[in-house]
User: Fold these one by one.
Assistant:
Number 1:
Amino acid sequence: MYGLLFDNSGMVIWVMWIIILCSLAAMTIIGERFWSLQKKYISPPNLVAQVQQWLERKELDDARINLLGQTSPLGRILAAGLANRLSPRYIVKEAIEDTGRHVIPELERWLGGLGTIAVITPFLGLLGTVLGMIQMFYGLSDMGAADPIVVAGGISSALITTAAGITVAIPCVMAHRFFRAKVDSLIIDMEQEAIKLVDMLHEKPQKSSSVNY
């Protein structure tokens, strides 16, 4: 019977290691996204106000636009619009939208992996339990009647993987939903700031422009 229990544990331990690795990966993703998706890094306040000051003081040049584009994802979007500030409104909007399409995947980085971990870990736990139960009952069929206490211990050992998988999946689901909502909120903030920039650029013709708006 001791050999049976040892074999049962051997069947599920590799599944447990996969679940542990998934939990470590999930913790890494959650920590990185918590840090990276702070609003001050994605959509810093007062960027549009700073651009307005540059325009009013006639200090806006390519160097400042390039610097703005390196500050944050919102800075990249605003810089794309400013690089086309002498063009018609629809050109400015297209430049901003095109840059936004490249920025959004950066905000969603690793969220697909976190969602995958949330989905597969309960199944991994169930797989470990099923394999453990199969191995245990296979051994019982060879050995005949066994001590119920020992059988119950083997079943509880097999169920540990299911509990572990669910324990990993629950916080992953919660974190994934939280970060998705966070990304959506940041996208809305950046869209609003970009609209402010477009409206500001086309309130009146720029003196340095030869284009009629």
Number 2:
Amino acid sequence: MSEFELKIFSTENRISESDFEDFYSLMKTSFPKSERRTKAAFRKLCEDEALYKIYALFSENRLCAFLTVWEFESFTFGDHFAVSPALRGGGIGTKMLAELKAQCTLPFIIEVELPETEMAMRRIGFYERSGLKLCDFDYILPAMQKGCESIPMRIMAYPSALTETEFEPIKKEIYKTVYNT
């Protein structure tokens, strides 16, 4: 990752206030309200949740991209992944996923929108080119904030697709720990 610096933030390597503001700003730009936490909820995760980590790429001390993950005992769950709008399409997301996969020895799971729009299909294609596999079953993203609806989604997994039966214990852990449902 030549001109980029990868930093990993966690409860042991805390994020600075200015970096936190940059992260939340990029999150707001990249995700609709229904797919992101409130600022207070995001801050609490950064400060208190030992399973939660932020992989971030910086260039000249400026945030370029981030991927938030939950590192469970038997899998890693990708929560939010965003690249600065000015840098999208330049290979940063691919580099970021490659770095995470190199460091991650467990299955990697993400949620994606249903393949019903051109943008959703492009995102799924991006993840497939990075080695993730689209799982052939539906999944519901619980409401992220008050006043928001749950959202039908799909799951993608690395290094191989999961069956719905294989995913069931993972889903229970995600719902319990990530979404408090």
Number 3:
Amino acid sequence: MAVTSALVLYAVLWFLTLLIVIPIRLKTQGDVGEIVHGTHAGAPHEPQMKKRVLITTVVSFVLWVIIASVIISGTLTVRDIDWFERMGPRP
């Protein structure tokens, strides 16, 4: 795996993890009952983004290590998931 591929894999995992982590335990202004004038009731009351970014970074790094080690070790290759044999016969 090249450096660029590793960085792209980490970036994709990081953003996907962030989109999963953001709504966890989110309290909206409507839930709390303190709606700031001019904002939507569904706006977050306390977003805690530093905590969410840290959790995202740690979780995505663990996932990246697992996926990168599988790719580098050759345990799972593209031919292993070629169920319809579109790549041709195995050498």
Number 4:
Amino acid sequence: MTVLTAHSNTPESAAALAASYEEAGRRGNDDVVVFVLDGDAPDVADAQARGLKVTVEHPNERDKDPVGGLVDAATRLDAAVIVIGIKHRTATGKLLFGSSAQRILLDAPCPVLAVKIPQG
């Protein structure tokens, strides 16, 4: 089964991408799909060096909801897990901006692995 990773150009997404490669190895799976929520597609050379097959997908251009596109992709791919990067936000930040991570956690058809960048 596929390991699906949400990606944007952030340090949290870089941590999620690295965790998705490790998760694929733990599961004995070589399929990783990187779903680009925004920004550029990541460099997947590290995954290829590990022998993983990486596919990069972008949300449908007509779809204005990339989080919904990620959840739809998880259903379509019968994903084993979705890997996301998260960051700490204040209560006010959560109230004003909502949370893509929260939507993914609530709507995902499979387990979600939430990864934080190391503090320090």
